[in-house]
Automatic annotation (TrEMBL):
Biased composition (Basic and acidic residues): 132-149
Region (Disordered): 35-56, 71-90, 131-156
Matches recorded under Pfam families: SEC-C
InterPro entries recorded: SEC_C_motif
Protein species of origin: Ostreococcus tauri
Protein name: SEC-C motif
Gene3D superfamilies for the chain: 3.10.450.50
Record's signal peptide: none
Length: 175
């Protein structure tokens, strides 16, 4: 929870605030990563591409993220989770591309719920409540798209977040 609050809280009050929009695009997400890193005074990604030492920080090497997004086509930027596996390998190291897409999907889900709340949740209970309330207001298509985008970030044996009552691995998480 602290990681979510710290990351989202580090960029509030700006025109690129994730709470300002119901749909956080991949380009906006990369810009937010860059801005959060700058505001934290963290070293730039050119200086180090190693993972952050502090577990509570949500980050991704900015130069690498920008390069991946630059190589993507417009339709892939709209729905990164729908990018075929072969194309992901063309964009860069597949594990890193998948990590960027998963992090974006989770941030977009949280930002969408926070936009509906109008503020950043301050406790895990508030976040859970916001996520549930956000799920209730989404169409089945939106839920399925969001669930597919979270492939790899969502436990496979849990019920699918699209509402189908199937296990995630047999529904939206199937390859």
């Amino acid at each position: 929870m602290d990681a979510v609050r710290a990351w989202l809280g580090g960029v509030t009050g700006a025109s690129t605030n994730p709470l300002a929009s119901k749909d956080l695009s991949l380009e906006d997400f990369v810009n937010l990563l860059e801005r959060a890193e700058t505001e934290r005074g963290a070293p730039s990604s050119e200086e180090t591409s190693a993972p952050r030492a502090h577990a509570a920080e949500i980050s991704f090497p900015i130069a690498e993220a920008k390069e991946i997004v630059r190589k993507m086509r417009d339709d892939e930027r709209v729905d990164p989770g729908g990018t075929p596996l072969a194309r992901r390998r063309e964009l860069g190291d597949r594990a890193r591309v998948d990590e960027l897409f998963k992090t974006h999907a989770l941030a977009r889900a949280i930002a969408r719920r926070c936009a509906e709340m109008g503020r950043v949740p301050t406790s895990p209970e508030e976040l859970a409540e916001a996520l549930k309330a956000g799920d209730d207001g989404m169409s089945k298509e939106e839920r399925a798209r969001e669930a597919r985008a979270m492939r790899g970030a969502f436990p496979s044996n849990r019920p699918c977040p699209c509402g189908s009552m199937k296990k995630f691995k047999r529904c939206c998480g199937a390859d």
